[in-house]
Amino acid sequence: MTFDFDATVVGAGAVGLACGRALSKRGLTVLVLEKEDFIGQGVSSRNSEVIHAGLYYPTGSLKAQFCVEGRLLLYDLLESHKVDYWKCGKLVVATDEAEIPRIEAILEQGRINGVEGLEELTGEQARALEPELNVVSAILSPESGVFDSHGYMLALQGEIEDAGGAVVTSAPFEGAAPLAGGGFSVRVGGEGATSVTSRLLVTAAGLSAQAVATSIEGYPAADIPQGHFGKGVYFRLSGPAPFNRLIYPPPIPGALGTHYRKDLGGQGVFGPDLVYVEAEDYSVDPAKAAEFADYIRRFWPGVRAEALSADYAGIRPKLHGAGQAQPDFQLNGQEAHGIEGLMALFGIESPGLTSSMAIGEAVATKLVGDTRA
Length: 373
Description:
This protein is of the alpha+beta class and 373 residues long. It contains 9 helices and 20 strands. It has helices spanning 14-25, 62-80, 100-112, 123-129, 149-162, 209-214, 289-296, 334-337, 352-368, and strands at 5-10, 30-33, 50-51, 85-86, 90-94, 119-122, 137-141, 145-147, 166-168, 173-178, 184-188, 194-203, 228-237, 246-248, 259-262, 268-271, 275-277, 308-318, 330-332, 342-346. Strands 1, 2, 9, 10, 11, 12, 19 and 20 form an 8-stranded mixed beta sheet that branches. Strands 13, 15, 16, 17 and 18 form a 5-stranded antiparallel beta sheet that branches. It starts with a strand and ends in a 5-residue tail after the last helix. The mean pLDDT is 97.
């Protein structure tokens, strides 16, 4: 059978575009569908734009593997495409003696995960790097950084299109049905509503992952993991940025917690917190500045609540609710749902942005093998 495309990817965020790029590199004709008017308008544009080193994630997990592998691939692509980034490094800080065992455990996990260059610092050594920091002990991660995530996604889009593929926006995925001889009929909405045939199908739909899976004919409902919306808000600092490096306290349950970054424009930004919500809501309550200041004061005593202004919010596509253990990424192929040629991605939250190219390579390898051109 002749198909319109070798592979269709649902979702033009960082992970969907990375999957499209990896498939294109293997010589496939690729269509990437995006319901929004521009690429990267969902989870990929509402985050910290941090390049994670891979410290926190459980031994043998996909998060541990893909974060380390993805970081290396990401830095290479940013450099080759001249996308703005800054390998500023990160300090994971203990602000009192009780937190020292927690950061020592993070240091050990990072070394198990193969993160390069990690150092344990005394409070005095950490303050020599960042004098305004309140700290009794710290981990220095020199491989962590920040980057222009939209520039990165444009680079991925460019590689897909250079290989003859298409990234189509304002084109919502409305469903798919497996064809008798293999492959899929894919329904596309929007002004130019149509259907196309595709030999392979990848769903990388972020917050819509569960809804997209439900719209694929024959996908077993019992095998679609329950999704949860984990909202986090950010506050921007007026005045000089107090630190050059990323500053992270020990993680909170279910997330890495409110941290500091100096963005590529030189401003200090704090966030995100974590609140579970039932629907997409990107509002930020300015009154939360006082709550943020109380938390930040643990590692930066000089913060003033009146210097914090509400900035933006993001929502993470979590597979766990409040009080539940944080699960791994899910890259579900035929062995999980029984449908040949389909890869369905769920729960691609942090460190999904850093991991995106490694996720793309894993998806492409599972579907067609490691036959990169």
